[in-house]
Amino acid sequence: MITATDIEKKKPLAGLSESGAYQKLLAFASLIALLIGFSIASPNFMQTSNMIAILQATSVNGVLAVAATLVIITGGIDLSVGTLMTFCAVIAGVALTYLGMPLLLGVAAAIAAGALCGLCSGTFVAKMKIPPFIATLGMMLILKGLSLVISGTRPIYFNDTPGFDQISRGSLIGEVFPALPIPNGVLILFLVALAASYILGRTVLGRYTFALGSNEEAVRLSGVNTDAWKMRIYALAGGICGIGGILIASRLNSAQPALGLGYELEAIAAVVIGGTSLSGGRGTILGTLIGALIMAVLTNGLRVLSVAQEWQTVVTGAIIILAVYADMARRKKAG
Amino acid sequence: MITATDIEKKKPLAGLSESGAYQKLLAFASLIALLIGFSIASPNFMQTSNMIAILQATSVNGVLAVAATLVIITGGIDLSVGTLMTFCAVIAGVALTYLGMPLLLGVAAAIAAGALCGLCSGTFVAKMKIPPFIATLGMMLILKGLSLVISGTRPIYFNDTPGFDQISRGSLIGEVFPALPIPNGVLILFLVALAASYILGRTVLGRYTFALGSNEEAVRLSGVNTDAWKMRIYALAGGICGIGGILIASRLNSAQPALGLGYELEAIAAVVIGGTSLSGGRGTILGTLIGALIMAVLTNGLRVLSVAQEWQTVVTGAIIILAVYADMARRKKAG
Amino acid sequence: EDVYIPLVSKGFQHQFWQAVKSGAEQAADEYGVTITFEGPDNETMVDRQIDMLAAALANNPKAIGFAALDSQAAIPLLKQANDKGIPIIAFDSGVDSDIPVSTATTDNAAAAGLAADKMAELIGGKGKVAVVAHDQTSRTGIDRRDGFVNRIAEKYPDIEVVTVQYGQGDHLKSTEVTKAILTANPDLSGIFGTNEGSAIGVVNGVQELGTEGLVIIGYDSGKAQKDAIKSGLMAGAITQNPVGIGYETVKAAVAASKGEEVPALIDTGFYYYDASNIDDPEIAAVLYD
Amino acid sequence: MSKLVDMTGIEKYFPGVHALKSVQFDLVPGEVHALMGENGAGKSTLMKILSGIYQRDGGTLRIEGQEVSPKTPREAQDLGVGIIHQELSLMNDLNVAQNIFIGREPRKSFGRLDEAALNAQTAGIFASMNLNLDPRAPVGSLTIAKQQMVEIAKALSYRSKVLVMDEPTAALNDAEIAELFVIIRRLKAEGVGIVYISHKMDELKQIADRVTVMRDGEYVGTVDAADTPITRIIAMMVGREVNEEPLDVPDLGDAEVSLEVSGLSRGKEIQDVSFSVQRGEILGFAGLMGAGRTEVARAIFGADPRDSGEIRVHGQNVSVKSPKDAVRAGIGYLSEDRKHFGLATGMNVRDNIALASMDLFLSKGGVLNDAGMAQAAQSYIKQLGIRTPSDTQEVRLLSGGNQQKVVIAKWLLRDCDILIFDEPTRGIDVGAKSEIYRLLEELAGQGKTIIVISSELPEIMRLSHRIAVMCEGRLTGILPGGKNTTQEDIMHLATQRAAAMQVTGTLQ
Ligand SMILES: Nc1ncnc2c1ncn2[C@@H]1O[C@H](COP(=O)(O)OP(=O)(O)OP(=O)(O)O)[C@@H](O)[C@H]1O
Ligand SMILES: Nc1ncnc2c1ncn2[C@@H]1O[C@H](COP(=O)(O)OP(=O)(O)OP(=O)(O)O)[C@@H](O)[C@H]1O
Ligand SMILES: [Mg+2]
Ligand SMILES: [Mg+2]
């Protein structure tokens, strides 16, 4: 009676290809279609330098979207990713420029600050039972204000920290393969995505992330300390936002304390376009990356085409809807 | 054996007091606490003119929050309320100023445009099965762009439409009771809230709004055309945003085409602070009104206290979290 | 008695507004008055600014400084202030009304025109240029864009403005916008960035793409922009006198609150600065970090 | 007599599952036609095709002679087919009356609701069902049994010609089942055709006219209920004989007391409950619906807070504040409501089985040993006969009974010393049921402590070494297991209400 088919078949990294490589390949199709469309429309689009520019443009939003994916899979939502990123950038600025810490320590401080703030959100959600929307909306405002307070409402420059701007702008890959000067920021995004994928697919933390989003009460009644795990997931997401803060600070070679509002919607949009369900329990990092790329290609392509700003917005909105619709329709067909 | 106890007892307006007057009274407590706190902190706070300023500030956000409440109770979310409001304001501007329509016709056109856009979102969600977050995010962008396109990226002024600014600024109440010059905008908010409450509590549409959010599949299995009803609810919400558009246009005596981004989060925050669950199935209009008032009182009070702007943001975030926490704790105690 | 003067501005977090604020605080110290300085998150939030004005009125101020996002929208409240005998000082851009007793402002259109002249001069009177603007609908955004574009159209027939794109004054977005513009127009000769965030974004984008020989003209100051000018990345920039605007506004407000006569228009001026004159005392005084 | 429903050659495929293989089924007016089969045999799927929820992939469906293909539940309703679903499908935020009349609310002009008529009509239906329930009670606050009654009331309100009941009695107690049978007989007399799905074999003789048996998605045969012995029907279902061994109460002597509960109280639901269980013992908990058995179990497990009471495990006082503490102390609890409290339905079988035992599969740095999890899952799939295409199938796609087995597997894997099973065989077929009985006895034999809560008296009597009986939150007595205790003894204790309670009467 038992059908022990493919016990031996290794399950691939769940985070990356949970719901079947096939489907992800299909989600990929919207991205390819956009790339082809823009290439035809403008000869300037398909240049190496522009492709790298698109990847570079994906890096910050991609990292934030990865953070948001984790929280969304638990069935929550994180509106604070954008201002938390800024807050961490400011912390890095304070640590490196004002306190003169060594580079690595300053970076670590920023990431730790991110994880700590994530832990706060997680505590609000898990222990105080505040709906994630409100908890992270509150955090978004608090962090926005604190960034201004701590920085004295002025940008903090990293001129005294040589090499800081190389974190995002330098290119280790380019040093090895000069033809492919992919900036480190992009490399970091992929490393973060790989790590998050691994955590989601292969570790207890990841398994509980999905389980919490699927049925939190059932998990609790299985003797799991759901509150503690949820807090860990939010802290992890916060730490990833900290990496995002480092990336943006390094790219701008300064911590801009007023930035970050509105980034949360873009990040969440990337997550949802990537096929992660806002009701929790399912989602993939690969999908999120594709979602972030779709957004970046769209924005870049329309700008390269010099479409009037107001029409850029209209077209972006329409294509987001269409991309998700196409994905839905294909999934339905795929069963 | 049947105990048909007080079947005859009239149920109060469900939308307004669904989950018990007691609980709502408790949610009210945060608002009162804020009012008392600010009155003690600043003698200037409790002036009639300031109270009216607070109400006036609530009117637009309140109307949008009412619209968002309807959609949220179905288990959806509406990110387009802000830009839809602007779009409707622009439509009113085009109708009244450019086409020279009579006042009432122009107002009707704006509301109809809102309902139509709501219907579009509803169609995306119900028929094309696009997640509400994406469908309304797309609409938000489309409408933002279209507002700029239609208006030629310029404000449209209503100087040729005498009386238009009185829709929001005038005071019918003030004419009757000169001591209470409550602006019409506030009156309209209350009328909209009453109507929405009635619809939620007493009509089929309202019943299905709750039912859809509670268990859509069960409703469908009961033979209800869930898609059609969902589209109607989104259309209704859109129409209400249209009213919001008239209110803001009249208040500014102009249609400002770039306005509206960021308003959606404030509206949704008011809804959630008011106790409506983002997972759908439960919520009240009264709660939303209280939520919107809490936000307005908070913003105004901190300004009157001359708190530094960066700290205003921090305190607002903290108080939003605290207000919802207090509400949660009280509810838990109330059982 | 405590003299309270609220300033309701168009923005808050941007360095330009922070410089206005510091000028205002300087004057407040000198004249011994209390001020508050507030502005919405971005320049589209017309109604939020009105709410701020309403809250300011509640505190019974002696005078109000006001930088209107939209003059018309504010008129009822301005009337209310007028009825209460509270003088209004407009700053940054004027208010279309005779209520303000004084206006401390820069002519943004003329300043952007100067940027166009400098651009034309530096690229040799011909070629393609682009504009990275900060806002499509706000008064400052429109004036600077149109001031630049119109001057080019009027005076330099061989120069073409190939595109105007918007980065919301967000450094990162402006960077991406710049890169897209350069991708689409590899033969570009110059870019004008209409505020600090836009200008820095242009510099960033050019740096990241490694484009050379491009003339960048910026607007406002700030440390990054000053560094870019000193290092030659940026040819030069227009600066207004934000500190002066803030200072003059409060000064006029204090005078008006005492019933003294104030000038109807206080032109705080604008300057073009580049590596050659950036350290001149006259210029250095109006720059901020 | 003309046939109401005639299904022939019905085929249905799901990804990876051939759920129905040329199945036939027919129904005449005024009969109760029982549909029997093991978990996952395809009963629910067949009925979902009849009621327009699924579309068939092959075969013909005739209703009153007309070939039809209902595409939506609405179309099926219009054809006269009503269904009570196996899984509750109610709107928890709405009240009882609103649920029953969803889609058919009495209206006034302009889409206004006539709430008074709605409540009155609902009260009428309840009266005809002899059911005591407030039409305005929110459904989410009702017990599962009450919710099931609401589902039944809803189906009745359609006045269908064909009424499908998919395990309507799974959550009901004997008294309620008796009431339901009265209703069914009345409907029968009115000429309604009823399809009746149940795993409770004793109900067949009471109510069914004909029995159709399915196995593995195939049609096995249709027999007359009155003349066919139950054993033969069971043999048709499982393809072999199932022998019920009688209960053999072991003498535990002075075996260690592994769980001792004293003075457990919480509000009105639990009032001063004390008992103890020995190592190797199976303690049954009997009582009427709402007696508070589930509440006691949840309180012991730390799922709900308690006002007072001590819990001692192996003589040690343990502080159980959350399920985590309970599991750490070696207590496992299998909830009666698998959908809400037992399963992460969006996850696969493997993860669900491992959910309570992740620490067994941990290697360095929190990395999971997926191969180990797969192996464990596979072994339980085999041991419990869970019907699933693979251990990576999502649990929500399994049949109800197989879902229940997944929950059981979860707790078996956890290997707790003390296991509380709340309605462990709800929705489980006879074959699997006796497997589970054997399993529980085996576990007890291995020295585990077992508490079984069940609303089926035969099950309690079949399993329990001792029987604890509850009534309205109080433990009214503990009876010895075995032949000497009769159903009457249990019912006597189960209805021993406190004096004060008898006066107030109506409990809701
Ligand atoms: N939507 C679906 N997708 C995939 N497989 C399904 C789906 N629905 C049912 N199945 C499978 O079809 C088979 C028949 O399921 P069905 O629910 O009809 O069984 P059942 O006879 O009602 O069992 P039970 O007594 O446990 O309720 C099972 O193997 C089940 O896993
Ligand atoms: N979710 C709930 N909300 C409100 N009251 C509840 C809820 N669940 C149970 N109750 C009430 O608690 C009491 C005990 O119910 P419990 O479920 O423990 O009984 P039980 O003996 O396990 O019966 P059952 O056979 O229904 O499982 C009853 O009065 C019941 O109505
Ligand atoms: Mg079934
Ligand atoms: Mg129970």
UniProtKB/TrEMBL annotation, chains A, B:
The record's InterPro entries line, in alphabetical order, gives: ABC_transp_permease
What Pfam families does the annotation carry?
BPD_transp_2
The topology of this chain with respect to the membrane is:
Multi-pass membrane protein
Q: Which UniProt keywords apply?
A: Cell membrane, Membrane, Transmembrane, Transmembrane helix
Q: What CDD domains would the database entry show?
A: TM_PBP1_transp_AraH_like
Q: Where does the UniProt annotation locate this protein? A: Cell membrane
What's the protein called, per UniProt?
A: ABC transporter permease
Q: Which organism is it from?
A: Ruegeria haliotis
UniProtKB/TrEMBL annotation, chain D:
Q: Which Gene3D superfamilies match?
A: P-loop containing nucleotide triphosphate hydrolases
> Which residues does the UniProt record annotate as the domain ABC transporter?
5-241, 247-497
Query: Which Pfam families does this entry report, sorted A to Z?
Result: ABC_tran (PF00005)
Keyword list, A-Z: ATP-binding, Cell membrane, Membrane, Nucleotide-binding, Repeat, Sugar transport, Translocase, Transport
| CDD domains for the chain | ABC_Carb_Monos_I, ABC_Carb_Monos_II
GO MF annotations, alphabetized: ATP binding
- Please indicate which superkingdom the organism of origin belongs to: Bacteria
Which InterPro entries does its entry note?
A: AAA+_ATPase, ABC_carbohydrate_import_ATPase, ABC_transporter-like_ATP-bd, ABC_transporter-like_CS, P-loop_NTPase
In its UniProt entry, what is this protein called?
A: Sugar ABC transporter ATP-binding protein
Specify the species.
Ruegeria haliotis
